[in-house]
Amino acid sequence: ELQRKKEKRRLEKTIDVEKKILKERIYYYKFRCADVNSTQSRKNYCDSKQKLYEKKLDLLKSDPEEYFMRETRY
Predict the structure, then answer these.
(1) Residues whose CB falls within 8 Å of the CB of residue 39, separated by 6 or more in sequence, listed in order
(2) Which residue, 23, 43, 57, 65, is the most exposed by fewest CB within 10 angstroms?
(3) Contacts (Cβ under 8 Å, ≥6 apart) of 42
(4) What is the DSSP string of 23-39?
(5) pTM for this model (two decimals)
(6) Which residues of 43-53 are buried (b: 16+ CB within 10 A; e: fewer)?
């Protein structure tokens, strides 16, 4: 029982850290990746990366096990 509680706490910390990382990446691609003077292709690239990380964050929130399974495969 104690071992399970420790494991759960460790997983929760890992999930929290991963959420922060994904939110930082979303922020970067949303606000800092491209500016007004950037080319359209650069803007499209930044937009697509932002959407990718938003999908990853949604998956992490809804199903952490699935998220980590997918991310550790690469």
Answers:
(1) none
(2) 65
(3) 33, 34
(4) HHHHHIIIIIS--TTS-
(5) 0.84
(6) eeebeebbeeb
